[in-house]
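User: I'm preparing a small set of examples for a lab meeting where we compare how different chains pack in three dimensions. I only have the primary sequence for this one, and I'd like the structure in token form so I can line it up with the others. Please keep the answer compact; I'll paste it straight into my notes.
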Amino acid sequence: MAEEQPTLKKVSIEQIANALGVSKTTVSRALSGKGRISEVTRSRVRAYVASTGAVPAVRTLWTPESATYNLAMVIPTHFVHLDLPFLRKCMGGISMMAAQRGYDLLLCYASASDTTQLERQLVNRKMDGVILSRAMADDPCLDLLRQYRVPFVVIGRCENDTIPQADNDQVGASCEMTRLLLRLGARRIALLAGSTTYNVNNDRIRGYLLALSEFGISPDRLLIQTGVESDAQREDALEAILEQRPDCLLCGDDRLACDVMHSLAARHIRVPQDLRIASLYDSELLSSNPSVSAVQYDAEHLGATACRMLLDLLAGKQINTRQVEGYQVILRESTK
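Assistant: Understood. Below is the structure token output for the 336-residue chain.
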């Protein structure tokens, strides 16, 4: 009679993290061998796993026989409080493309410090593939997805060009918008943008600086305010910029531009008579009076592109790891 093989006990990344008093990201990086982590910590995590006789609860490679026919879209946690047209349209494009191939879409919230929901979905094999809605620097979700061997695609630009990514030409769009504003006579163009944790904001800054350089204008660091993610941060940044007497204000996205318009109206600053305004993303939020000049992208198409890439990966097809979509700059009343 053949001897029965012992059933290996499985331990989750969260259990290892709690036992060692470290973060789940640290555990994930120690087990995957990827990411910035000290060798001492890496050895400590692996020694703990070995001492327990357990194996990390990671999923095996995807196969048609194990398919759930679900995809997950990961959204930054703080976005749950915001009504962002970009995410809604992106989600619509993903959902429609997924449905065409017989897949459904799950939502998942994650942040740089909390990936609990994503890990739970991974542990419970809820999905076959994942789409990250924003590219973040040093994103812990990437370590988790690699650890659990789940195919994924990122919307946005990643430093690692081996990661499948669907993006808009953010640098080119920001550069062209800034260039047009300069041609309209603006010279002190202030930039108000979100956190540089997100690569999209870094690309928008690069495009802005590139256009200034083309016109021989040295950037004034006092006219650049980044890290604007809350109402209080927006008001502080706007106050600091207005003290520098800009002639034009370039906002990183539609929500920021919309809120800035309200703040300027409360200060009795007229647009465009006293200050021109433009946005590096367009949506229905900017159809106010006056309407705001903005960069127009097809977010629904971008979402569909990301989903198609992921589905092709699941089907075993070869894909271009980076696919870049175009844009259009629309000039309206706010920059006249």
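A couple of notes for your slides: Residues 1-8 have pLDDT under 50 and may be disordered. The first helix runs from residue 13 to 20.

User: Perfect, thanks.
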